[in-house]
Design brief:
Length: 209
Amino acid sequence: MRAQAVPPLRVLLVGRDPLARAGLVARLGEEAVSIVGEAAGPASLPGAVARCAPDVVLWDVGAGGDGAELTSVGESPPVVALVEDDIVGRGVGQGGARGVVYRDADTVAVLAALRAVTSGLAVLEPDVLAALVPRRTAPDGEAAEELTAREREVLELLVEGMSNRAIGARLAISEHTAKFHVVSVLGKLGVARRSEAVARALKLGLVTL
C-alpha cells in the first residue's frame, strides 16, 4: 500500500519588520512547511488566523521588542517566538508562547520547535527555561523528580561525557532537541551543571558506571 503523504505544516508568520518576515519566508520556503499568511502585529493577527487557519504561528518579536503583545494570541494556534535574548524570552514565555527560540538559531532548530509545539510540547531555550523555572538543590535524601524514558537515555549518555551534538546523533534527534532534554534532566535532578547531574544520578542509583 502506498504511504499517504504528510501534509506540510501550515505556518503563519508574524512580525513588524517586513524584511525580517521575507527572510523567514526565504529560510523556510524550501522546507516541509507551507507559509499560509503573514501579519504585521496583534491588530491584524485574529483576522489572519481566521483567514489562513494555520497549524502554528511563528512570531518574530524583533530587535528591541519585548513581546508584550503576545498575550493577545491565546493558546490556539500555538506560538513559537523568535527572541533576541533570555529576558525577552522569559516575557514571551510567561505571555503564553509554547516555543521560545533565539533569532539566530538555525533553520533546523526553528523547524523542530514548530513541529514540537504542534504536537503539544513546549520548546524553550535553556537560558529561558532557567529563568522561568528556578532550579532548586534537592536534599541528599530526597528522590529526584521522575525522569521520562528519553531523559534516562540522555542521562546515561551524559555519564559517558557526550556533548549535545553527540547525544543527538546517538538518539537520532536534533542537537537542539538534545539540549532541551539535557536542561530538563538538570532541572529534575536539581542541579546546575552536567557533572553535578552525573554525580547526583550515581548517588540516587539512576545510573551506574
